[in-house]
């Protein structure tokens, strides 16, 4: 089997409403580039990547000279063809490699008639549990804003009833830390038997990170994720509070993982199949974490059904996955795969059992959302549509005003 072509299609899939985060916002839609790798036997493998609200079509298509004639089974060779570690100082292609790796695993699974998780050692669970991913958001298109503690709790309750979540993650760093602490405590009071996590995306100062961490020590926390930036910053917070520290920002490769093993800064590593360059690197990293008693979770970077499938296959094979995975998935209105969005049951999503990734494109939906992208375009992920001229600093000093209610058109 050899690769003969690669195609890329950018889609914009609507979210329920614009989601705010510490560095900007998702502007009411996810911009994703759908990757199709065609082999000489007629099979097509699927991949997906983001791009901070922008298209990655040109970068994907530029890989054809590297891929034409390549055997999809040769994944180690693929890594060096696309993302040689020294060449990548000039052309960082880690996320491009991930999208192609997804597609190659999909091709190999289809060729052999087995699901990707069998190629990774075989699944040990049939479904992967997820946390409700809670965002402060703008009102838009009939969807209510989420700004106050009561609005946040009501939204969490609706998601819990609809999908069965018993773990809740609050994306913070939007409003002043003391206000978000009030919101976090409101969640704890409303769902005393559920577990919680807080993630301000590393924008708190050291003093704020320590104060927040100490204030939540008595709550039913999974972990405090990236309260401050950098391995040394996390280490200093970790040494002074009684809450596990997690990261998805500063341990995203094996050099950083080694540093964290030698000088413990984070207790839980959130593995992202895009950030790490594919599913297989995440499996390798999880093995290192298992050896050194680090916890692992599965990170969400704003995926549609193709990348969600990679997360499910990853979660299926990890013996040390003791935390519910993250997913923005329930914030979407639709998906581009056949059957639409994969369903939650009791807070979990079933691992696909079909050959390869186990998902296929709905061509009508792809065409619809490709046309929608052409109409509305991309957006700057690191800007906030409700705060013109604002940009985040690390640590941040200019938080949003929680008394101001804004509606944003999408």
Automatic annotation (TrEMBL):
SMART domains membership: MR_MLE
Coiled coil: none
Family annotation (SUPFAM superfamilies): Enolase C-terminal domain-like (SSF51604), Enolase N-terminal domain-like (SSF54826)
Catalysed reactions, semicolon-separated: D-glucarate = 5-dehydro-4-deoxy-D-glucarate + H2O
Organism in which the protein naturally occurs: Nonomuraea longicatena
A Pfam entry, by short name: MR_MLE_N
EC class of the enzyme, as a word: lyase
Lineage: Bacteria, Bacillati, Actinomycetota, Actinomycetes, Streptosporangiales
Name listed for the protein in its UniProt record: glucarate dehydratase
Domain Mandelate racemase/muconate lactonizing enzyme C-terminal: 149-244
EC numbers for this chain: 4.2.1.40
Biological pathway: Carbohydrate acid metabolism; D-glucarate degradation; 2,5-dioxopentanoate from D-glucarate: step 1/2
């Amino acid at each position: 089997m050899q690769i003969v072509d690669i195609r890329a299609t950018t889609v914009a899939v609507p979210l329920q409403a614009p989601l705010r985060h510490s560095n900007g916002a998702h502007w009411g839609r996810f911009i994703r580039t759908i990757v199709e790798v065609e082999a000489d036997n007629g099979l097509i493998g699927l991949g997906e990547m983001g791009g901070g609200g922008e298209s990655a079509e040109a970068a994907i298509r530029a890989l054809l000279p590297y891929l034409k004639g390549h055997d999809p089974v040769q994944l180690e060779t693929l890594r060096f063809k696309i993302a040689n570690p020294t060449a990548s100082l000039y052309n960082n292609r880690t996320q491009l490699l991930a999208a192609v790796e997804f597609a190659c695993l999909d091709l190999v699974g289809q060729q052999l008639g087995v699901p990707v998780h069998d190629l990774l050692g075989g699944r040990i669970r049939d479904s992967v549990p997820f946390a409700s991913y809670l965002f402060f958001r703008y009102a838009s298109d009939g969807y209510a804003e989420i700004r106050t503690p009561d609005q946040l709790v009501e939204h969490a309750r609706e998601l819990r009833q609809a999908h069965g979540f018993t773990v809740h993650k609050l994306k913070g760093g939007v409003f002043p830390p003391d206000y978000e602490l009030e919101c976090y405590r409101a969640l704890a009071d409303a769902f005393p038997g559920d577990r919680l996590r807080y993630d301000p995306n590393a924008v708190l100062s050291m003093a704020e990170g320590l104060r927040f961490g100490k204030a939540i020590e008595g709550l039913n926390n999974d972990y405090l994720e990236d309260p401050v930036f950098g391995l040394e910053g996390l280490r200093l917070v970790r040494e002074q509070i009684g809450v596990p520290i997690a990261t998805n920002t500063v341990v995203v490769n094996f050099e950083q993982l080694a540093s964290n093993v030698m000088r413990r800064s984070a207790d839980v590593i959130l593995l992202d199949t895009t950030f790490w360059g594919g599913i297989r690197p995440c499996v390798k990293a999880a093995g290192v974490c298992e050896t050194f008693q680090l916890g692992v979770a599965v990170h969400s970077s704003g995926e549609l059904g193709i990348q969600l499938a990679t997360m499910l296959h990853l979660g299926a094979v990890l013996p040390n996955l003791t935390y519910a995975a993250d997913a923005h998935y329930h914030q979407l209105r639709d998906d581009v795969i056949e059957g639409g969005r994969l369903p939650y049951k009791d807070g979990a999503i079933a691992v696909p059992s079909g050959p390869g990734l186990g998902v296929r494109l709905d061509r009508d939906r792809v065409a619809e959302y490709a046309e929608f992208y052409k109409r509305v375009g991309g957006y700057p992920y690191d800007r906030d549509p409700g705060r013109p001229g604002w940009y985040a600093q690390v640590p941040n000093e200019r938080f949003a005003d929680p008394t101001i209610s804004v509606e944003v058109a999408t």
